[in-house]
Specification:
The protein is α/β, with parallel strands linked by helices. The chain folds into four domains: 3-173, P-loop containing nucleotide triphosphate hydrolases (Rossmann fold, 3-Layer(aba) Sandwich), CATH 3.40.50.300; 179-241, Helicase, Ruva Protein, domain 3 (Orthogonal Bundle), CATH 1.10.8; 246-344; 383-508, 2-Layer Sandwich (GMP Synthetase, Chain A, domain 3). It is built from 22 helices and eight strands. The protein has helices at residues 3-6, 19-30, 48-60, 74-78, 100-110, 132-143, 163-166, 179-193, 199-209, 213-225, 234-241, 246-257, 261-271, 276-297, 301-317, 327-344, 383-396, 399-402, 431-443, 445-457, 483-495, 501-508, and strands spanning 37-41, 89-93, 120-125, 149-155, 170-173, 412-418, 421-427, 461-465. It has a five-stranded parallel sheet, with helices on one face. A three-stranded mixed sheet has the order 6-7-8, with helices on one face. Helix 12 crosses helix 14 (276-297). It is elongated, with a radius of gyration of 35 Å.
Length: 515
């Protein structure tokens, strides 16, 4: 017999986590306030059908009706654990008996008196599966049932039960069992089974069971069957359940938060060995814990925004794992999406996250006060002189910055002026060169170059990218890039192994950025 069947409650005191309901039913029985129709609703595995059987046991006990059945009479034995069932208590699976014909057959059976016991009781499990026509056929008999007939409807979706039926029942709403209560129950079961289980294992089982007694006992039984010796080893239990190691999850999310792309891709590849659903749940659970801790401590808003962005992205990308795509491809795309927040320094998350990363189009310093009109008048200075100044700007830049602005990367520049301001138009060799310029070194390069331009040319000069690369390709804005393009860009970026902002700031040493 399964653990759930073996430890199924036979009396109201044995039911865990539903004290208000069991006490209300006990009081009603002891005070002879017995209804002819009940509705038990709540999540699966929380005790609805068990309480329906116990109620039937209490009502038909030879020493009853009583809230404490004797457990010795024929009715109590038949309705107890391992019992054959009573002829006067009919359990009907409404999911497979939901037609009008089934309802009419039930209505005919109601007319017969109990064969032996005090009441004829009908327990209809999954009652929400009964069709509207079936409910209508039952309506009259539920409204005016024969004497000594009781209906007990059990359902996970009470809103789907016909309102006219629902209004004629006494409704008890069951809830999921609290973690502390569940853990104590599991510990008692382990003790009776002669199994040693520590807090880590019990917490694991409680988390997997999600408040359902039946699910928790099923998980515990799986672990007991797969154990070596009398003690449940946490690491072995984690493997049996297919759970991700916490250090793998924390390492992956930590790499995302720190913008360590190479580490993130490597750890993402390791997560591909686990079931997608387990992986998604582990990531979301860890993000939830970080968010709660973040808000409780009142830490910086940017990290909270990034965590919210990550949770929305993971939920959006969960559909990828249901397709016929390889899991490694899906994980790479997800990792690219999560890294996109750090690459662009986004400060917030929109209420609805689109499948493609919502990134700014560029990291170039925006000119103020107004956009410069194209084809404006040329600046007063000679272009050749301006190009010489540009070369001087390049020569004074740190070596790490020069890598992105050498002639191979920016083969041509031009100048356009208007409204007292002059734009230095940078034509990059390829679109990838332009994006690398904008995103490398945590987006610090455009700022460094922009400040150097102002220092050499004057405050009215600023840099601006050309719309088309030197190879003729139109440069796609980052926010308009497909997920595949973003993944490729991210992989190209990590090949360069960029320095941190602090490291590059030390190397600048006041040449470009004041202070």
């Amino acid at each position: 017999m399964s653990l759930y069947g073996k430890y199924r409650p036979e009396t109201f005191p044995e039911v865990i986590g539903q004290d208000l309901i069991t006490s209300a039913l006990s009081n009603a029985i002891d005070n002879s306030r017995i209804s002819q129709a009940y509705l038990f609703s709540g999540p699966r595995g929380c005790g609805k059908t068990s309480c329906a059987r116990i109620l039937a046991r209490c009502l038909n006990c030879a020493k009853g009706p009583t809230s404490h059945p004797c457990g010795e009479c024929e009715s109590c034995i038949e309705l107890g654990r391992g019992g054959s069932g009573s002829l006067d208590v009919m359990e009907i699976d409404a999911a497979s008996h939901n037609s009008v014909e089934d309802a009419r057959s039930l209505r005919e059976q109601v007319q017969f008196s109990p064969l032996r016991d005090r009441y004829k009781i009908f327990i209809l499990d999954e009652a929400h599966m009964i069709s509207t026509q079936g409910f209508n056929a039952l309506l009259k008999v539920v409204e005016e049932p024969p004497k000594n007939t009781i209906f007990i409807f059990a359902t996970t979706a009470p809103e789907k039960v016909l309102a006219t039926i629902r209004s004629r029942t006494v409704h008890y709403s069951f809830k999921l069992v609290e973690a502390g209560v569940m853990k104590k129950h599991l510990r008692d079961v382990c003790a009776k089974e002669g199994v040693e289980a520590g807090d880590e294992v019990l917490d694991m089982v409680v988390k997997q069971g999600r408040g359902s007694v039946r699910d928790c006992l099923s998980v515990l039984e799986e672990l007991i069957n797969g154990r070596f010796g009398e003690e449940l080893d946490p690491e072995r239990c984690r493997k049996i359940l297919g759970l991700l190691p916490s250090e793998l999850v924390e390492g992956y999310l930590g790499a995302i938060l720190k913008s360590e792309a190479e580490t993130a891709y490597d750890l993402g590849e390791k997560m591909g060995d686990f079931e997608p659903s387990a992986m998604m749940e582990a990531l979301l659970e860890s993000i939830r814990e970080k968010l709660v801790e973040n808000f409780k401590k009142g830490e910086e808003e940017k990290e909270a925004s990034q965590l919210l962005f990550m949770s929305e992205s993971i939920k959006d990308y969960s559909s990828l794992f249901k397709l016929s795509l390889s899991q490694s491809l899906s994980l790479d795309l997800l990792t690219s999406k999560l890294l996109s927040f750090s690459l662009t320094g986004s400060q917030g998350v929109s209420p609805k996250i689109s499948p493609s990363p919502a990134l700014p189009s560029s990291s170039f310093p925006a000119p103020s006060p107004a956009p410069l009109p194209r084809k404006a008048a040329a600046p007063s200075q000679n272009k050749e002189e301006l190009k010489e100044k540009w070369k001087k700007v390049l020569s004074d830049l740190p070596e790490e910055v020069k890598e992105s602005v050498v002639e191979e990367k920016i083969p041509d520049i031009d100048f356009e002026g208007g409204q007292g301001r002059t734009a230095i138009l940078l034509t990059f060799a390829t679109p990838l060169d332009q994006h690398a310029f904008a995103l490398r070194l945590n987006r610090s390069i455009p700022k460094i170059v922009g400040e150097a331009v102002k220092k050499e040319f004057g405050p009215n000069f600023f840099i601006q990218p050309a719309k088309r690369a030197a190879n003729g390709e139109v440069v796609t804005k980052v926010k308009d890039m497909s997920t595949e393009e973003l993944s490729m860009l991210s992989r190209e970026m990590i090949k360069e192994k960029p320095l941190s902002v602090e490291e590059i700031a030390k190397k600048v040493e006041g040449k470009v950025i004041e202070g």
